[in-house]
Write a structure and sequence with these properties.
alpha/beta, Arginase, Chain A, three-stranded antiparallel beta sheet, 11 helices, 36% helix, globular
Length: 316
């Protein structure tokens, strides 16, 4: 396994004990804070292509699967690029396993948003399916009104299993899907809570049809006891997340993985209109509660240590 730290903000560098452990493990560190501020939350095609080219020039490429840690979930759209990079070394089909408190499936035409990247990942011919796990957020309330690409579910290229969520009210008929049963104008989700955690683990493994997987984790899928993020958070606990990674790794080859979701203070660059637009968006979408910096560093570092250990075993 090749370990890489993408410093897109100050989140990882503030976790000195985690940085020390990564150094001992031979991690390759790429510092991108200045250029990353241009694509935080979302980026235009030109901005994203320029950012990805900076990463590409600094990769230490080899044939080992790569595990990348990066900062805030505001950068989760970088996953589409990281998965594409992994697929340059793997020529067969994959399933992309996506742990998140948000579905990241909205339509976004002018580039890629941290809430839209699933659409871009599915444009890659080798990505046969995305399985999104753990959503509890309000994104599933009136999803059509919020721009959700719901037809992906009925096309069979996306499956979404909330940790817990009430039925979603919709206007259209979405037919048959593994993820839900539609009853009149409501999608009744198959949730982890209703299935039970152990039963869901077995069910999830039955839904992965490819030998190889790419895994992406936004730590906002976790309860606040296990992670502190920029976003509203879910209900999954860290031990269960670790057990799912182990179970998947025991049956499938992990060709790459990334971890995001550490808290960091938002910093934006670009035009005045861009900066104001992004600040308005996070004012509407992100919690307004203050974050205790010391607590954030301690809790997120502990989760990162645990994730590094489990991935080191699963990707060995």
């Amino acid at each position: 396994m090749q370990l890489c730290l993408l410093h897109v903000d100050e989140a990882l560098e503030s976790q000195q004990d985690f940085i020390y452990a990564c150094d001992k493990a031979g991690a390759h560190q790429i510092r991108l804070q200045q250029s990353a501020s241009d694509i935080r939350l979302w980026g235009t095609w030109a901005g994203l292509n320029a950012f990805h080219e900076i990463i590409r020039r600094q990769w230490h490429a080899n044939d080992e699967p790569r595990l990348c840690f990066m900062g805030s979930g505001d950068f989760h759209h970088v996953t589409a690029f990281l998965a594409a990079q992994a697929l340059e070394r793997h020529k067969g089909p994959i399933t992309l396993i996506h742990f998140d408190n948000h579905p990241d499936w909205v339509h976004f035409e002018k580039g890629t948003h941290c809430g839209s990247w699933v659409n871009r990942a599915l444009q890659h011919s080798q990505v046969k399916k995305v399985i999104t796990i753990g959503v509890c957020s309000h994104d599933l309330r009136l999803p059509e009104w919020k721009g959700a690409n719901l037809p992906l579910l009925t096309q069979g290229v996306l499956e979404l299993y909330p940790y817990a969520h009430a039925p979603s009210r919709v206007k259209k008929n979405y037919g048959v899907s593994m993820s839900f049963d539609q009853q009149e104008r409501h999608l009744h989700w198959k949730t982890i809570q209703n299935m039970g955690e152990q039963h869901f683990t077995d069910f999830l493994l039955s839904r992965i049809k490819t030998d190889a997987v790419y895994m992406t984790i936004d730590k906002d899928v976790l309860a606040r006891e296990d992670a502190i993020t920029n976003w509203d958070q879910g209900r999954m606990r860290l031990p269960y997340l670790l057990s799912l990674i182990k179970a998947i790794g025991n049956k499938h080859r992990i060709i790459g993985a990334d971890v995001t979701g550490d808290y960091s203070t938002p910093v934006y660059s670009g035009s005045l209109m861009t900066r104001l637009s992004k600040r308005a968006e996070i004012f509407m979408d992100q919690p307004h509660s203050r974050v205790n910096t010391g607590e954030s560093i301690s809790i997120n570092s502990a989760a990162n240590h645990a994730l590094l250990n489990v991935f080191s075993e699963a990707m060995a």
